[in-house]
Amino acid sequence: MTTKHSVQDFALLGGPSLFEQPVHVGQLRFPSWERYEAAMRGIFERQYYTNHGALAQQFEARLAEFLQVKHAIAVTNATLGLIMAVKALGLTGKVIVPSFTFIASAQSLTWAGAEPVFCDVDPSTCQMSLRQVRESLERETGIEAIMGVNLWGGSCDPKALESIAAEYGVELYFDSAHAFGCTIDGAPIGRFGRLEVFSFHATDVLSTTEGGCITTNDDALAARLRNIRSSYGAGPPTEVPLTSNGRFSEAQAAIGLLNLETFSDALANNRASCAVYRERLAGIPGIAVVRAHRVEQTNWQSLVCRIDEQTFGMSRDELLAVLKAENVNARRYFYPGIHRSVPYVNDFPQYVDALPETDRLCASLMQLPIGALVPLEKIAAICGLIADAQHHAASISREAKASS
Amino acid sequence: MFSKKNVSDLAAVGGAPVFDQIRSTSNLVRPDFGKFLEYSTIFYEQHRYTNGGPVAKLLEQRLAAFHRTRYCVSFCSGFWALVLTMKCLAVPDKTEIVMPSLTYRRMADLAAWVGLTPHFCEVDPATLGVTAEHAERSITEQTALLLGVHPIVNNCDVDGLEKLSARTGIPLLFDSVESVYESYRGKKIGGFGRAECFSMHASKLVNGFEAGYVTTDDPELAARLARMRAFGFCGEDNVEMLGMNAELNEVHAAMALAGMDDLPGQVDRNRARYRAYQQAFSGCPGIRLLEFDETEQTSFKNIVVELKDDWPLSRAETIKLLHAEKILVRPYYAPALHQKKTSYRTIFGPLPITEALVDKFLLMPCGHFVSEDDIFQTAALMRFLFANATEIKRRMPL
User: Fold this and answer.
1) Spatial CA neighbour of A42 closest among A234, A231, A251
2) Is B362 helix (H, G, I), strand (E, B) or coil?
3) Sign of CA dihedral B223, B256, B104, A197
4) Comparing C-alpha atoms, which of B208, B206, B43, B203 is closest to residue A36?
5) Contact yes or no for B169/B94 (Cβ under 8 A)
6) Which residues in chain A are contacts of B50 at CB distance < 8 A?
7) Does A150 have pLDDT greater than 90?
8) Closest residue by Cα to residue B97 from B38, B147, B158, B59
């Protein structure tokens, strides 16, 4: 499906855009209008709007069943879930966290009064490096916990991290924002460490527009989390260091329940989309799709690829500019690494040049659109565009530099 | 009709409760469903569900116009709106925040999230609001921020606090959660101090499921808050500051907008309820209904009564009796914040006014589920309690 025959055909150099409207990264799954209207009508009839209502309780029960955990505590969003987790675990010291993750992982520590200890990634998996986690535990004093981050529908090997945490006597919990629906050893991610935090943001595979949940098998920890979230009537009052508002409304719960009903369709759609990307990008030199690491089943919610500048013929950022001009809103997730972002770059300058693998990934990875609004034909067209861009890489690069 | 004849008819001793369904102090206003759907179509058609979507933007414009301020920034809740605004406004390197002790039960926790130490002050017994005079006594060299909190009925000493802020250079933030509709000396609440924070929780004047917002005339503060609620991003990849996720989703924004459309109607209904309270409690022994200042704009939403010295039951006893009747009254901000154990440091001197006030006031049922007849029944019950207090005390191990 070649549409760009010469460099002048590329939108970056004055040609027409491949798509009239921007195509975005993000799952963006929402119930049909009819189902949405019916669910909202129910809320208006019951006139119960928030504070651990009937739908929120039902959603929590469904999540607990789906994730095979004792407690699933629905929260306003995953970042607040991570912040609440730090308080519920009573962490006040250092927590190991990868720098190659969404910035909220580290921000949650800062808001809750803990201190990030950044570790590097394993370049072959893009997940946090277990060797680096060990090195941090050996090197640093005062480490209280490890925040394992399960990136992009893959995992950071939570079982191996459980062994390391036990060996060093530190707490372990997980940012599993991207991991809803992924499985390890025949069961979903959600049961590892002291707790796990999932995201139900609109861009994630299960959406409640904004939202998230915390899973745990620990009754006392669940009670503390519910008290920090501060829903009325959601269990007995328990002493907690600080309360917040992490409540989950009936509207969020209604949307979550509807999206859970069609979750298998979402997975099937993602899987098919991912297959088209893999097949069509496979023959293009210098671009490779990152595979989900150490999971039996992924949720295929993110399509991440790595650009090898030498082989592809242009840099990741040059390709990104080409794609954006065509209205393909590919994104650099994550760029820059958290250790190079405010306030961490100033507060913890020791990490600036200490995480070379993170820096390399930040410079070479990008995400392509996958989700409810990206039909397979669009994916095929995006792949065709990338093939054309690679074919004309040297000239595009030259022309773009000349015209800028 | 109120039908209790004897003390044995009280629900607390086994009689039938006055109401089948609870009457609460939560507003729980249901906006028009059609309007809610209309606003929902905006985000639905654009496939935008959060992250400063079109409905949240519309809501922000609407609220800025309503409060007559230049800017409004929406949040996932009033709680995080306050936390983030405190973070932005507190003088760097100073550690204390001045706030009344007789206020919202999580107010000290709010300050603790940004590492500020609450320094509690008294309130004016006549208004239950913080005054400049009381706030000033709690100012030290470490004061980073003044928190002007409006009481549940009417306003606090806005003018005095603004002058105090101007004189001392300490920034002033208003918690105006209970004063959304009010005016102060004819000017809309929303434009005072450096910023004002509001909640649109379902129990508040405007029901946005869970939601909050900040109004300000300060462009830099508005921009900073908008970034801070979205992880500190400025542009696609660039993080400019410590942020978090405190975004308002589009469904909640649609709900809040439908609530705004209903606001004039709601205030009319609230006024009718308040008039019923005035009539029903007129001459009720031992009880004083807190009056709205009708020379200002007011929502007539919250109903507070004082149990006067001649009220024959303690407030705890009164609450227990009313709860049994499914009348879910609540103590007015009790315990006071300085009386609570916290995991963090707080500062306060003697607070005799607060301690004298803390057991006196009750929030009465209000809002969408409360009819005028309910109000007359509630008043009749209160008169019944007054008349039979001696026997109630004798019969009940309260």
Assistant:
1) A251
2) strand
3) negative
4) B43
5) no
6) 201-202, 209-210
7) yes
8) B147
State the pLDDT at residue B152.
Answer: 97
**Does residue A233 register a pLDDT over 70?**
no
Quote the minimal CA–CA distance from B135 to chain A in Å.
Answer: 25
Q: Residue B325 corresponds to which tokens in the numbers above?
A: 């009747």
Residue A230: what pLDDT? 87
Say if residues B247 and B52 touch (Cβ distance below 8 Å): yes
Burial level of A124, CB count in 10 A (0-12/13-18/19+)?
exposed
> What pLDDT was estimated at residue B262?
97
DSSP state of A9: G
Q: How far is B321 from chain A (nearest CA, A)?
A: 21
Per-residue pLDDT tens for A54-84?
999 999 999 999 999 999 999 999 999 999 9
- Amino acid residing at B377: Q
> Confidence class of residue B398 from pLDDT cuts 50, 70 and 90?
low
| Pair B171, B91: CB distance under 8 Å | yes
Could you give the CA distance from residue B13 to residue B7 in angstroms, rounded to a whole number? 8
Reading the block at residue B61, the tokens are: 């414009």
**What predicted TM-score, i.e. pTM, was given to this entire model?**
0.98
Q: CB distance from B241 to chain A under 8 Å?
A: yes
What structural domains and CATH numbers belong to chain A? 7-26+263-330+369-403 (3.90.1150.10), 33-261 (3.40.640.10)
Tell me, yes or no, if B282 comes closer than 8 A to chain A by beta carbon. Answer: no
The answer, for B234 touching chain A at a CB cutoff of 8 Å, is: no
Average pLDDT over chain A, rounded to whole?
Answer: 96
Q: Are B72 and B213 in contact (CB under 8 A)?
A: yes
Phi, psi at residue A167, to the nearest 5°?
-60, -40
The domains of chain B, with CATH numbers, are 7-29+262-395 (3.90.1150.10), 33-261 (3.40.640.10)
**B240: nearest CA partner in chain A:** A342
ipTM computed for the complex: 0.98
Question: Is A342 close to B239, i.e. CB distance below 8 A?
Answer: yes
Nearest CB to B231 within list A80, A103, A210 = A103
**pLDDT in the model for residue A364:** 97
